[in-house]
Amino acid sequence: MKAIICKAFGPLDDLEYGDLPEPEPGKGQILIAVEAAGVNYPDGLLVQGLYQMKPETPFTPGMEVAGTVEAVGEGVTGFKIGDRVAGKGGLGCYAEKVAMPASQCFVMPDGMDSADACALMVAYGTSHHALKQRANLQQNETLVVFGASGATGIAAVQIGKVVGARVIGVASSEEKRRLAKEAGADEVIGYDNLKDDVKQLTGGKGADVCYDVVGGDAFHAASRFMGRNGRLLVIGFAGGEIPKLPVNLTLVKEYSVVGVFWGNFTMHEPEVYADNMKELFGWYAEGKVKPLIEGRYPLSDAAKVLERVLGRGATGKIVLVP
């Protein structure tokens, strides 16, 4: 089968589009014929050896997939050959076929688009966990979303509106701010005067929750515009800088800084994770959330697509199609 192969940590251009033996489902696994593999920011970090985990090389990147069950391993119940499923794994999804733990897979609702299903796994899964379990976002609170035109940002905007929050989307260009507004943001702003703009839009009160996938200067602004009892969510560092927190601000302003590591959550709280996905799939069926799919690209274009994602040039969700 065709797959993307990382033979050694290094530049994205070193990724190979080559042949690998077809996997066989082991105990507790299902074999999925891939319809779409989601592209995520951590995939590019992983290939370069810059992520929290470093798998043995060679490996095939890709952590989310949608497709059709081709075979069922020993001990698997609840899945049968021919089911259309979406799943999350650690690696292996940039391929024509992938064997994945059945416990990490869900049967897709009838008619669900495979690219939408991929978006619901990691992008929406991350934002949902961040806002529900980590921030405990409430109706009528103010949520500020950084990177509001990206896949996770659009998810956070839409989930914030489902909860009933007031959402301020932050994005770096007029076009990206337009997309955030179309996703449901009540107001959209840029990064140039971030602290003052949020303070002005909240009447000086500050944000109840800030969803930060950017880090760097944006985090520094957030550390100064948070409101009392606010929750500043640390999700990623797409801006390239891991910032330092002036902890005196958390003391005098009485807000919390909360880490969000969705992959850890899915491993340690699988039942809660399953409940989250059921809720997201239900919201999708009801039309309450709808991913923005920027594009579907050939599997062989993986390196080129990852370059765009890491360069913060992507909007919405991108998938690779074998």
From TrEMBL:
CDD domains in the record: QOR1 (cd08241)
SUPFAM superfamilies on file: GroES-like (SSF50129), NAD(P)-binding Rossmann-fold domains (SSF51735)
Pfam family, one: ADH_zinc_N
Annotated InterPro entries: ADH-like_C, ADH-like_N, ER, GroES-like_sf, NAD(P)-bd_dom_sf, Zn-ADH-like_protein
Residue ranges occupied by any Enoyl reductase (ER) domain in the UniProt entry: 10-320
Residue ranges of coiled coil: none
Gene Ontology molecular function, alphabetical: oxidoreductase activity
Name of the protein in its database record: NADPH:quinone oxidoreductase family protein
Organism: Aquicoccus porphyridii
Organism phylogeny: Bacteria, Pseudomonadati, Pseudomonadota, Alphaproteobacteria, Rhodobacterales
